[in-house]
């Protein structure tokens, strides 16, 4: 059983749907806080990181379709073009689902490197669509990719703690 | 009758990730194309915005609480000072207003004498900014009145000092204002000093505006005030838009680089005014003789 030997045995632990829904809504809330100027550039995409977490940890429950739907909601929240976030999050979810076996084997540091490439792809697709439609790219936008990557480790630890709490209670 | 050559699956998990990826990517691209080209999806967007707007409203709460805490802790000293300053401002404005009314009356009589059409009065609707869009690419804010208050796309938004932007999208209870600093957002203006007509564009990445296509020889100076010219039929005439801060005249280029700063607190103000209803262009002249129309059409190009 390779799972039992993996670095992250918590992957096998149960997660309630409520936790998934709440975490996504909370991520949308965090994205919507009044960020401005340089803080807006540095703001990690909380929704992307949370979706990636669930896609790699519960790929059978949270997959490409759900990520697409969350992307549509993000499009409405940001008033970006319909499908802009959705396309980016679809690729993000595919990256997460495709790499979930590998990520389960890795420790947090190794995971972070893998996550960086998936997030970079997501950010690049979003900027590419914007470039196609409007004809310019705001380069500091990609700073958000770095901060999102840095968010991966604390977020993983936090979810691990939350899920541990649930297991302990039961 | 199971096929033994295929790998056996305990559970039916639906199509493979690759198939899903292609399906949703194509769906997204289709939506993108439809939204960018035809804008058919505005009603869907309004419907979904009802789902999202509670989260958006909730996200503005921390800022509001912070502000309210600040209001609560304001000292009496600062309140008294503010009050005095406001009184002074009010006295000055009242004097100016009296003068303005006399001028308005005079202007109306003169326009009557010259048989020019009268300038219409502008009705205004106060609104409050609820949410600034969290997208580094865009300079847009959402204000707290929408279709239910009769807001329409194309209405002009200003604050107490000048033009802030224009309504570009209307939701049931909110509407979206594109700020003048948005990339390529254009406002037809004229220089207050000499009436020179031009168009001011947003720069997008900074809170500056720029005048493009100003010949190097044109009469424009640093410190010039730009006001709306009103010839577009959307912006009413005579509202301040920007002030010229820097002019670079390089003889190697046919056009001067003119940088301006908006007069209004485009990024800072919470309370804005929506001007009700675009004034509209006057009726076109009935039918011109074909001979005079053609050269005019060429001149325009």
Any key phrases for this structure?
heterodimer; A: 170 residues; mainly alpha; 75% helix; globular; disordered N terminus; B: 301 residues; alpha+beta; Thrombin, subunit H; 4 helices
Based on CA atoms alone, the radius of gyration of chain A comes out at: 16 Å
In the CATH hierarchy, the architecture of the largest domain in chain B is Beta Barrel
Q: Output the number of helix runs of chain A.
A: 9
Structural class by helix and strand composition of chain B: alpha+beta
Q: Percent helix among the residues of chain B?
A: 25-40%
What's the level 1 CATH class of the largest domain in chain B? Mainly Beta
Sum this structure up briefly.
The complex is a heterodimer of chains A (170) and B (301). Chain A is mainly α and 170 residues long. Chain A is built from nine helices and no strands.
Q: What would you note in describing this structure?
A:
The complex is a heterodimer of chains A (170) and B (301). Chain A is mainly alpha-helical and 170 residues long. Chain A contains 9 helices and no strands. In chain A, α5 (64-78) packs antiparallel against α6, α6 runs antiparallel to α8 and α8 (108-134) crosses α9 (143-169). Chain B is of the alpha+beta class and 301 residues long. Chain B contains 4 helices and 12 strands; from the N terminus they run αααββββββββββββα. Chain B has a 6-stranded antiparallel barrel with strand order 1-2-5-4-3-12. A 6-stranded antiparallel β-barrel of chain B has the order 6-7-8-11-10-9. The longest helix of chain B has 39 residues, at 76-114. Chain B is globular. Residues 1-7 and 291-301 of chain B have low confidence and may be disordered. Chains A and B meet through α2, α5, α6 and α8 of A and α1 and α2 of B.
């Amino acid at each position: 059983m390779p799972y039992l030997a993996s670095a992250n045995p918590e992957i096998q632990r149960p997660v309630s749907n409520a936790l998934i829904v709440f975490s996504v809504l909370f991520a949308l809330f965090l994205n919507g806080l009044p960020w401005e100027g340089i803080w807006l550039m540095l703001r990690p995409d909380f929704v992307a990181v949370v979706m990636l977490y669930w896609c790699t940890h519960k790929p059978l429950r949270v997959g490409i379709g759900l990520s697409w739907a969350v992307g549509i909601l993000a499009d409405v929240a940001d008033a970006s073009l319909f499908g802009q976030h959705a396309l980016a999050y679809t690729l993000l979810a595919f990256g997460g689902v495709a790499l979930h076996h590998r990520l389960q084997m890795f420790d947090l540091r190794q995971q972070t490197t893998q996550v960086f490439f998936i997030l970079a792809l997501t950010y690049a697709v979003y900027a590419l669509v914007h470039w196609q439609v409007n004809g310019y790219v705001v380069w500091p936008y990609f700073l958000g990719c770095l901060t999102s990557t840095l968010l991966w480790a604390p977020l993983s630890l936090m979810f691990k703690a939350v899920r541990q709490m649930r297991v302990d209670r039961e | 009758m199971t096929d033994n050559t295929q790998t056996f699956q305990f559970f039916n998990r639906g199509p493979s990730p690759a198939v899903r990826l292609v399906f949703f990517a194509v769906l997204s691209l289709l939506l993108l194309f439809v939204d960018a080209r035809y804008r058919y999806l505005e009603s869907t967007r309004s419907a979904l915005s009802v789902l999202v707007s509670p989260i958006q409203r909730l996200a503005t709460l921390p800022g509001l609480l912070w502000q309210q805490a600040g209001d609560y802790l304001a000292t009496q000293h600062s309140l008294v000072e503010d009050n005095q300053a406001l009184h002074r401002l009010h006295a000055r404005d009242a004097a100016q207003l009296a003068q303005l009314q006399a001028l308005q009356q005079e202007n109306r009589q003169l326009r009557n004498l010259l048989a020019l059409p009268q300038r219409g009065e502008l009705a205004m609707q106060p609104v409050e900014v609820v949410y600034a869009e969290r997208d580094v690419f865009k300079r847009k804010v959402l204000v707290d009145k929408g279709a239910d208050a009769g807001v329409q796309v194309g209405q002009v938004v200003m604050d107490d000092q000048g033009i802030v932007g224009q309504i570009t999208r209307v939701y049931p209870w909110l509407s979206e204002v594109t700020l003048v600093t948005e990339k390529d957002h254009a406002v037809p203006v004229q220089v207050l000093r000499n009436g020179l007509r031009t168009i001011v564009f947003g720069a997008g990445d900074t809170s500056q505006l720029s005048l493009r296509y100003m010949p190097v020889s044109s009469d424009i100076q640093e410190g010039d005030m730009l006001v709306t010219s009103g010839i577009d039929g959307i912006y009413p005439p005579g509202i301040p838009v920007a002030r010229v801060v820097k002019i670079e005249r390089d003889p190697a280029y046919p056009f001067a680089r003119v940088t301006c700063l908006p007069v209004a607190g485009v990024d800072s103000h919470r309370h804005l005014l929506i001007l009700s209803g675009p004034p509209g262009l006057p009726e076109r002249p009935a039918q011109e003789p074909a001979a005079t129309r053609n050269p005019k059409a060429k001149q325009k190009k």
